[in-house]
Amino acid sequence: MRHYTSNSLGNTIRRANLDGSGEEIIFQAGVFDATPTGITVDSVNEMLYWVDSTRDSVRRANLDGSGIEDLVEIPGQSNLSDIALDLLNGKMYWTDRTAGRIQMANLDGSDVVTLFEGDLVTRPRGIEIDPIGGKIYFADTGQGGILRANLDGSGLEALLVADTPWGLDLDLVNGKIYFTESVFNGQDSISVANLDGSGYERIITDNLDSPRHIAVIPEPTTILLVASAAVAMLRRRKPIQSQDAGAVRTSIMRNMLVRE
Q1: How far apart are CA 208 and CA 230, in angstroms?
Q2: What's the CA gap between 28 and 206, in Å, rounded?
Q3: Are 68 and 28 in contact (CB under 8 A)?
Q4: 180 near 212, Cβ under 8 Å?
Q5: Rg over CA atoms, the chain
Q6: Using 50, 70 and 90 to split pLDDT, how confident is the model at 194?
Q7: Which DSSP category does 207 fall into?
Q8: Which of the ends of the chain has fewer CB neighbours closer than 10 A, N or C?
Q9: One CATH from 3.40.50.2300, 3.40.190.10, 3.80.30.20, 2.120.10.30 for 2-253
Q10: What is the mean pLDDT of residues 46-71?
């Protein structure tokens, strides 16, 4: 198993083993040529997907960085933040924090649909999909909270109020949302809540410096956090006792990765 990181300051995408060994740059661009931001892995079809805030596009490549494709080019002013895949239904979703927009398309970039734009969603950042439950979860720093909706954009609901939420990931085995709160002149945190927004708790507040994206591996439960300058790996001691069929299916569909 490997993790993949995008570095928007260095305009690179890197991959390495989970212990940090074997790191290699698989994508690198000039300062004004490309800026990879949110990134995710299709481990079933062995493809890497990411959004690029300089090219205003959704891109994909093989896991070694070869065969780069521009799947969707976004017209007008935009600032793409994050991307998530619904492999069960063959869809991808991405956020645009400048336009206040969330869009989806087929995995090949066809049939682009705008789900939200404007008043209800203002500055969306991290996004994740629960394909079994049929839900989109996303962080909105403008609204100051975590929201969710059905996969077609209907049924939008605010789950909780948080202080500048940024990245998030889902632990579908245990029914949890993990997310980062990157607070200007305040206390950064890694936080957790139930999938319905209840039980909100800040679980890590020490030694954080503007945490951004986060990824959860629930087997065993491991949080992989990518902050500004470091990767912190935090292992929960209590093991998962059991899994139902849905959790096993979800573990196949989920993308286990680190993002920066």
Answers
A1: 10
A2: 33
A3: no
A4: yes
A5: 17
A6: very high
A7: S
A8: N
A9: 2.120.10.30
A10: 94
Sorted by where each begins, the domain ranges of the chain are 2-253
CB 181 within 8 A of CB 191: yes
Tokens representing 17 are: 């083993």
At residue 106, the pLDDT reads: 98
Q: What is d(CA 80, CA 124) in angstroms, rounded to the nearest whole number?
A: 9
The string of DSSP letters for 97-157 reads TTTTEEEEEETTS-S-EEEEESSS-SSEEEEEEETTTTEEEEEETTTTEEEEEETTS-S-E
Distance, in Å, from the CA atom of 103 to the CA atom of 96, rounded to the nearest integer, reads 8
Distance (Å) of CA 144 to CA 83, 90, 111, 156, 165: 20, 30, 30, 15, 7
**For residue 214, which of 159, 166, 174 has the smallest C-alpha distance?**
166
Please report, rounded to a whole number, the percentage of residues in the chain having pLDDT higher than 90.
Answer: 43
Give the integer Cα–Cα distance in Å for 137 and 111: 21
Position 219 confidence tier, pLDDT thresholds 50, 70, 90: low
pLDDT in tens, 107-130: 999 999 999 997 789 999 999 999
